[in-house]
Amino acid sequence: MGVLVSMKLHVLGIGMMVLLGAVLLCAGCTQPAPPATPTATPTMTPVATTVPEMKDIVQTAVADGRFTTLVTAVQAANLTPTLSGAGPFTVFAPTDEAFAKLPEGTVANLLKEPQGDLTQILLYHVVSGKLMAADVVEQTNLTTVGGKQLTITVENQTVMVDGAKVVITDIETKNGVIHVIDAVMIPAA
Question: Is residue 20 part of a domain?
């Protein structure tokens, strides 16, 4: 009988432990759960950033300040819509100093009848497509939007376009690129 009593006590002990565990478990169930606190959903606040929008060729020339005569001529010849359009264009842009090298009265005379020679001279400075300096030096000739040929030469790391020296390159615009030249190029008749 000793074994049987020992087993009964053992089973009784296990039963008591199960009962105690159940009571403790139920005791925990009688307390209401704390109210759920809604967690705040993180939100992202947009940060205002200003990325300067690229300007078109005409806007860039106006903003630069070195091309007032060129801009006046482009406006007089009614080429602003074209050079402000989709493009892309490459413009070899003579500075105000370049226009000042022309014989006295030349610019004034050209502006009097802008739809003639002035338009042809201006179109002689424009090539279709966006040609960066690295692209230009790979060429020997470029066809202008006016259908004329420009001759490109490179000597002693100086790039010349029909005799005009390229002094600043790769001014990027939203519709092309400007290369600054030191002379006004006049197309052959």
Answer: no
Cis peptide before 46 (omega within 30 of 0): no
pLDDT tens track for 33-60: 556 555 555 555 555 556 568 899 999 9
Q: Is residue 78 included in any domain, yes or no?
A: yes
Using DSSP's 3-state secondary structure scheme, residue 6 falls into helix
Amino acid letter, residue 142: L
Tokens for 49, please give them: 């950033």
CB 157 within 8 A of CB 164: no
Closest of 53, 120, 125, 58 to residue 85, by C-alpha: 58
Coil, strand or helix at 179: strand
Does residue 72 fall inside a structural domain?
yes
What is the side-by-side strand order in the sheet with 149-155? 126-128, 89-94, 176-181, 164-173, 158-161, 149-155, 141-143
Does residue 12 fall inside a structural domain?
A: no
Joined together, the tokens standing for residue 95 give 């500075």
Range of the domain at 134: 57-181
Look at the pTM and tell me if it is higher than 0.70: yes
